[in-house]
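debug: dumping io for the single-chain case to check the tokenizer round-trip. Nothing else runs in this session.
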Amino acid sequence: MAHSEARVVVSVKPVQPTAGFGKAAAIVEHFDGDAALYDAFAASCAGQFATDAAAGQSACETGDLQALGALAHNLKSALLMLGHTELSDLAARVDMLAAACDLASARVPWRALLAGLVRLQSP
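debug: decoded output
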């Protein structure tokens, strides 16, 4: 019986931005039209964004790709639910690059994501 090696090829598509979603669409899509529920979720996320920004920056500085990827993965979902599609797309890109063990490339979208998280914390 001949021994054969299985080879898996993974193809990763670049993240395509999804413009035009926004708060109003997020309320309808993810919160069943309940603006108060959206606002409560947004408020709880706002407090977490500062913690996430610091944790992501630390992960970038120390080269902790696992932590950076996990953080970006979580941010991707939260930001999408809030209607911040461009930031969600950046988080998806960081997540993908961290999974590919490409810290140098992951730092580029991370910097843009970090700037977005800082803007979200501003009144």
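debug: round-trip ok. The helical segments are 22-31, 35-62, 65-81, 85-99, 103-121.
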